[in-house]
Every structure is written in C-alpha cells, then in structure tokens.
Amino acid sequence: MGLKGAGIIALALMGLEMVGIYLVGRELGGLYTLLALLFSLAFGGWLIRHAGTSFLPELAGSLQSGHAPIGILWKTGRKLAAGLLLIFPGFFSDAVALILLLWPGAAAPAPTRSEARDGVIEGEWRREEEDGGRLPPSA
Fold it and tell me: Is the entire prediction scored with pTM above 0.85?
C-alpha cells in the first residue's frame, strides 16, 4: 500500500469524522456538540497522562512478583491508543476508543514456578557436627 494509499485512507477517515460531527451537531445542536468534543479532548489527555504515570510502577511490580509484563503492556497500549483516538476530533474515533477501553483485559498470568511452591526455597544443605554433636560455646 504505500504512502499514497495511507494518505487516501487518512482523508477518508477525516471525511467520515466530519460527516459524524455534522450529523451529531444537527441532532444535538452546535453547543452540545462542541462541549462533547471538548470533553473528549480533555478525557483523552487525562487518559494518556494516567497511562504514562502508572506504567512504570505497574511494570516494576509485575516484574518483581515474577509475572510476565505482557498484560501491563497490553493494558497501557490500549489506554494510550484510546487516549489518542479521543483527542482526535470526531465521534467515530471516540466509538473506537470506547471499544478499546471496554475490551476485556488480559487474563491474569499463571503463577511462576517459585510462587507455586508457597515460599519454599530449594537448596542443598548438610549438617556438620562439631565435638561429637555438641554445640560450640557461645561467646
């Protein structure tokens, strides 16, 4: 598909958004349409900010607990994509953003091998007896 095809698709999407804004404006009125677009812009910005600030702590917690970080990456990627779509003016992109936000999350990762043993640490040990099994004198 090339650059020319991507430009045609972008123009078609912008045209679709303009038609959507016109149709909503005709039904709700210009003021309510403008307020809905401004709310969408503000919510998209908040969503991007929230996804960015919560990403590193959630990723660190996931890695420290031994879980795979794919669930955190998927959730954060969906939030960022939805935020960008909400910032883009139009109601069709807002509908896609809503689908991304309501999409069921990734399943909880299965416990790792160390978590399945309930805190048991494997290792080798041996008992060394000094002086015929007596404990050494305390200092």
Answer: no
The boundaries of the domain holding residue 102 are 8-107
Between 2-28 and 91-102, two packed helices, what is the crossing angle to 10 degrees?
A: 100
User: What is the per-residue pLDDT across 117-136, written as a single tens digit (0 to 9) for each?
Assistant: 566 677 777 777 666 656 66
- Number of domain units in the chain: 1
CA distance linking residue 93 with residue 78, whole number of Å: 14
At residue 100, φ and ψ (nearest 5 deg) are -65, -40
Q: Return d(Cα 72, Cα 68) in angstroms, integer.
A: 9
Give the contacts of 92 (CB within 8 A, at least 6 positions apart): 13, 16, 17, 20
